[in-house]
Amino acid sequence: MVPAYPNRLFATFLMMVLFLLLILSVPVWILFMAVRAGVWLISRVLRPDLEKFVSGSDSIFAMYDGTRAVTNITTCFITNGHVSCERVQEMFTERVLRAEWKCGDLYFKRLKQSWTTFLGYPFWRTDVDFDVKNHIRYYDYGGEISLSKECSEEDLTRAFVGLSQVPWKKDQSPWEFLVIPGYKSLGYSGPRTAILLRLDHVLCDAYSIILFLRTLFHSPMKCTTGNLNERSLSLAKRSGLVFKVVYDLADLCLNELDSSQLRSPVISCVKGVDCSISEAVPVDLIKEIKNYYKVSYAAVIYSVIHGAIQATLEKHKELVPKNLATFIILPKPDRPDKFVNHLYGTCSKLSCNSNCPQARLQEIYQKLMKAHSSSTPFGIDLLGSQIQYSPVFLRRFFSHKLHLVPFGVSVGCTIFPALTGTDFFDGCEVTDLFFGLGPSLNIGIFVAVWGTNKQQKFVFIVDKTMFRSDKIIQSFGWNVQHQVQLLAKGLNQTGQEPGISEDHVEVTVL
Question: What InterPro entries does UniProt report for this protein, alphabetically (predicted)?
């Protein structure tokens, strides 16, 4: 592990070094901006088919043009009844493709776009031969992720995780809506349909997926939103953050990263990935734990995740790190009503190896409060926004060198609030919902939390190079329920019945 450095003088020294590096890098970024402007002018003459640059938060994901799956988001829905692929195609054409903003521009224009590079920079390009049948279709993958005639839970899980590694077709918008009729699950005898919605993160974030599904199915898909991680600052306050940002980034480098063995030794997932999906956890129970221990909703979620990691590693005789540097994806304030990526993130070293789940919960809560008051997310967002000015080959080069850095982030997490009501896809009730994001860069474990009907599901997607056996990976989800029960024991032992708060659920969004 990288030791903590309580010496603030050292942090101050590192802050000065970082600040100096930022100043010295200004001419480089000015040069990149000039080159980028030149590329734009040339593209107007030589490549009129190219539209805008891939910019902002989108540029973070514009590293590989679909030929290599790095940042796929896969969402799974289970419905009672039969969802017709042809009917979904019809609804998509009528409701989604024709949806417009007030300015007349298409709301979901990106669903007809892919991106490509020109002179080293990524551009959006519209698919002139767009055919909805290429994107909304019955599941048709073969090989290792093929499905049996009657798709079982095991088949569905294999397809769900396998799709995260499947590359996209060239010059085609990177998304697909795959319908699996005749899905069979334990405890239900009627007809069911499984749906896998997969898209490249360069198109949008998870909240945009909800907007898309609301428009497609005219279903409310209500979710509770919160303000724990949403901060809107005035221009004056933002300008005053300049020095604090540098100091907080220095503090992050010194105290919030680790050299855990849970960091992936490679960035390509050469052995593939595997996943473990938990049983549904009631939101009301999470709220009871939150209220009883006087912590945040997010703290309970992260405590359960890290407790499940500890329990799994202990069971399989693996070394359990005391803390794990965790990358936390947050929603940006002032989200635009668009189909976009609107997010940033921070890192915090959260307790993992603990003899007391309640103590771990309190420690994690304190660390999240520290992260909430830190300016690090703004600093990371500021640095990330500069990526759009650099050519793609430089982004790839530095991402490939991350594994050489002796410390970094071990676990990535995103928490999305469970849907609060019952939703229907073309008259068929949605009974289950979960999503996942494959590991990328050096982050070997990525945990995504979402659900429906006031229940959360935890999905662990793990790089297979991390562990000697797939059984270890498949155990993560199994331990989630046990960790929730350990935290809930305190409620039962006191004989009290804490009321279920109607307070908002603090969330972190992908």
Answer: O-acyltransferase_WSD1_N
